[in-house]
C-alpha cells in the first residue's frame, strides 16, 4: 500500500514563509502560468535571474519574471521606483473547474 500523498509536503518547503495567491492575468501564458492558477510563493527564497516572482509594484501585487541583470520585471512596460519582491514562485497549480473554496482568492485576497 502506498503512503498518502500530501500536497503540503510536496509543494511547501517552509510553511511559515509561504503564501498562496491566484493569478488574475494572462501575461505569463508563454511560461505555462494562466489566469486563475494558484501560485505557491516562497518568501524565504532569494530571487535569482529569470525566477518567476511576485512583487509589489506601486501598491499592487504582480507576477513576473525577474531580470536580475537589469533589475526589473520583464512583464512591466516601464521601470517603477516602488518595487519590492514579495517572494519566488516555487509552484503553480491549475484547477479544472470552479471550487467554492477558491472564491476568496478570486476576489483578489491572498492567503498567508
UniProtKB/TrEMBL annotation:
Domain of life: Bacteria
Span of domain Peptidase S24/S26A/S26B/S26C: 5-74
A Pfam family hit: Peptidase_S24
The keyword Transmembrane belongs to this UniProt entry's keyword annotation: no
Keywords: Plasmid
InterPro entries: LexA/Signal_pep-like_sf, Peptidase_S24_S26A/B/C
Protein name, UniProt field: S24 family peptidase
Amino acid at each position: 500500500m502506498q503512503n498518502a500523498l500530501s500536497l503540503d509536503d510536496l509543494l511547501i518547503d517552509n510553511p511559515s514563509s509561504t503564501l498562496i495567491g491566484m493569478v488574475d492575468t494572462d501575461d505569463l501564458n508563454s511560461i505555462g502560468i494562466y489566469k486563475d492558477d494558484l501560485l505557491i510563493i516562497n518568501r524565504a527564497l532569494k530571487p535569482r535571474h529569470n525566477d518567476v516572482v511576485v512583487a509589489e509594484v506601486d501598491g499592487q501585487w504582480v507576477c513576473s519574471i525577474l531580470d536580475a541583470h537589469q533589475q526589473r520585471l520583464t512583464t512591466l512596460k516601464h521601470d517603477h521606483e516602488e518595487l519590492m519582491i514579495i517572494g519566488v514562485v516555487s509552484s503553480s497549480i491549475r484547477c479544472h473547474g470552479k471550487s467554492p473554496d477558491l472564491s476568496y482568492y478570486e476576489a483578489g485576497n491572498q492567503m498567508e
